[in-house]
């Protein structure tokens, strides 16, 4: 496995060459003189950690700012400080980062936003993010927290480097490969909006001491937090900042932060199921099954079962290449959530098309959103429940509005006519009413086929309240 997962020497040299070229361009550009910084260095798996997988590496180049030179912005109140930092970062990108890389062989240069603006581009086949942060000492971070979320990253790198032996680094690679194969890795995961990050997986290996032990921790992560302070799940849940989190991997460089807070519940549920299968295959010595679970393969485009296609509705879009994929992903997830709500219930609250689940998948510049609908077509009318008969005033008001009411089970009822009887038509109307800037509708292709496979093979394994037996029957 490691022979397939470990980057070749040529690949590592190529990464180093790209990093050095970008670093030199930034340091030598005249725009750098307007911004005081401490250093420029790669972070993430291709930096000092060297936990990247073969052929699946990106580059995060961080510009660490000297905070003492930005006191005018940092000493403002919280609201104005946030705006001032955003303005600072945008100015840095426009006046320094973009002009500095203009003479390099780069593509897909985009200014994008997470906690604050940063620059994204492609160079020599690598995805590159150039990110500014503030250079804080460990004590400053522990006592006061970060100024921006990116300020922790430098300390994440140092922590991992100081705690990873070469054998643990190999275990990290195997765990990353397993999570990628499970389609629950990072911000490009196929199942859920956000999967497990590389840093979270590195922490699991460091905290547990081995790949096998990390698997056992993943199996009980929803009930047993990973916390350097050894707080219990009820104790962590008492913290208002943690109340909505469902799994916990606490950051050792900032114990007030849960690294797993953004991980999608659906992604964890699937990873847990596949971890159970991997552990079982290992105990049985089933080598082929272990390799199927550990080594990533492309998502198939093979046809899904007929019953599934009758209930599946997928729409595909193409990116204009201007807006970053994470922004398009988040907006498409938001639209999908709204569509599901509209599909499941009439405006009056009655059931509409039954149970509906959705998922988003993207592949390069193609994005697809898919829905699995229990009842793709329904009757043109439905019975709407009115007020109870003992509420005389409400009953009179209901009858004034509706002339054809009837009584049943101590309630007043009326037959309403539906505007939408086909789920597909309502989906198209809602997608048209809620367009995502940067995406245009295109014919269904391989991305849609992959999404159908993802929903059929993976999403349905964790969404166990969808009435599969009913729709199959």
Oligomerization category of the chains in this entry: single chain
- What's the number of extended β-strand segments? 12
The largest β sheet comes out as: 5 strands, mixed
The dominant shape is globular
* Uncertain stretches: none
Proportion in β-strands: 15-25%
**Average predicted confidence as pLDDT:** 94
Q: Count the domains.
A: 3
| Proportion in helices | 40-55%
Helix count? 19
Task: Report, as a whole number of angstroms, the end-to-end distance.
Answer: 42 Å
CATH superfamily of the largest domain: Beta Polymerase, domain 2
The CATH class designation of the largest domain is: Alpha Beta
Rg (CA only): 26 Å
CATH architecture name of the largest domain:
2-Layer Sandwich
SS-based class: alpha+beta
Strand order of the largest sheet: 1-2-5-4-3
CATH topology annotation of the largest domain:
Beta Polymerase, domain 2
Put the structure in a nutshell.
The chain is an alpha+beta fold and 473 residues long. The protein has 19 helices and twelve strands.
Indicate the topology.
Elements: H1 2-5, H2 9-28, E1 37-43, H3 45-49, E2 58-65, H4 71-74, H5 78-101, E3 106-113, E4 117-123, E5 126-134, H6 138-144, H7 153-163, H8 166-181, H9 198-208, H10 211-219, H11 233-237, H12 265-284, H13 287-294, H14 306-311, E6 312-319, H15 325-344, E7 356-363, E8 366-373, E9 381-388, H16 392-401, E10 406-408, E11 411-417, H17 423-433, E12 439-442, H18 446-462, H19 468-472
Parallel strand pairs: 2-5
Antiparallel strand pairs: 1-2, 3-4, 4-5, 6-8, 6-12, 7-8, 9-11, 10-11
Helix pairs in contact: 2-5, 8-9, 9-10, 10-12, 12-13, 12-18, 15-17
């Amino acid at each position: 496995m490691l022979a397939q997962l470990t980057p070749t020497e040529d690949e590592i040299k190529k990464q180093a060459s790209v990093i050095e070229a970008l670093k030199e361009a930034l340091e030598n550009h005249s725009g750098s003189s307007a911004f005081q910084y401490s250093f420029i260095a790669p972070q993430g798996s291709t930096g000092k950690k060297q936990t990247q997988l073969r052929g699946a590496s990106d580059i995060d180049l961080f510009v660490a700012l000297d905070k003492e030179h930005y006191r005018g912005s940092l000493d403002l109140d919280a609201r104005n400080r946030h705006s001032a930092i955003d303005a600072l970062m945008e100015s840095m990108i426009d006046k320094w980062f973009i002009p500095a890389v203009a003479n390099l062989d780069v593509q897909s240069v985009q200014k994008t936003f997470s906690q604050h603006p940063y620059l994204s581009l492609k160079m020599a086949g690598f995805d590159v993010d150039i990110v500014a942060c503030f250079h804080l000492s460990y004590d400053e971070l522990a006592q006061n927290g970060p100024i921006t979320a990116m300020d922790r990253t430098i300390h994440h790198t140092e922590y991992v480097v100081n705690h990873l032996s070469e054998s643990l680094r190999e275990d990290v690679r195997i765990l990353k490969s397993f999570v990628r194969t499970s389609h629950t890795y990072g911000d490009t995961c196929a199942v859920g909006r956000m999967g497990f990050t590389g840093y979270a997986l590195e922490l699991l290996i460091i905290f547990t001491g081995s790949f096998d032990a990390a698997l056992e921790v993943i199996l009980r992560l929803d009930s047993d937090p990973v916390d350097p302070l050894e707080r219990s799940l009820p104790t962590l849940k008492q913290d208002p900042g943690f109340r909505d989190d469902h799994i916990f991997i606490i950051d050792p460089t900032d114990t007030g932060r849960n690294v797993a807070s953004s991980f999608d519940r659906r992604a964890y549920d699937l990873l847990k199921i596949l971890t159970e299968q991997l552990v079982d295959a290992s105990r049985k010595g089933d080598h082929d099954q272990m390799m199927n679970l550990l080594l990533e393969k492309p998502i198939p485009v093979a046809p899904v079962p007929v019953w599934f296609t009758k209930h599946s509705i997928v729409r595909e879009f193409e990116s204009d290449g201007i807006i970053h994929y994470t922004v398009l992903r988040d907006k498409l997830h938001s639209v999908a959530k709204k569509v599901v709500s509209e599909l499941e219930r009439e405006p009056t609250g009655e059931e509409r098309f039954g149970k509906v689940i959705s998922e988003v998948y993207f592949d390069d510049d193609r994005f697809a959103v898919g829905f699995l609908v229990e009842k793709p077509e329904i009757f043109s009318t439905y019975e709407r429940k009115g007020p109870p008969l003992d509420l005389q005033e409400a009953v009179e008001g209901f009858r004034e509005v509706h002339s054809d009411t009837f009584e049943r089970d101590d309630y007043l009822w009326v037959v309403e006519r539906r505007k939408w009887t086909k789920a597909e038509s309502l989906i198209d109307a809602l997608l048209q009413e809620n367009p995502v800037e940067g995406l245009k509708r295109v014919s269904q292709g391989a991305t849609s086929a992959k999404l159908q496979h993802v929903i059929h093979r993976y999403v349905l394994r964790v969404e166990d309240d969808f009435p599969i037996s009913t729709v199959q029957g």
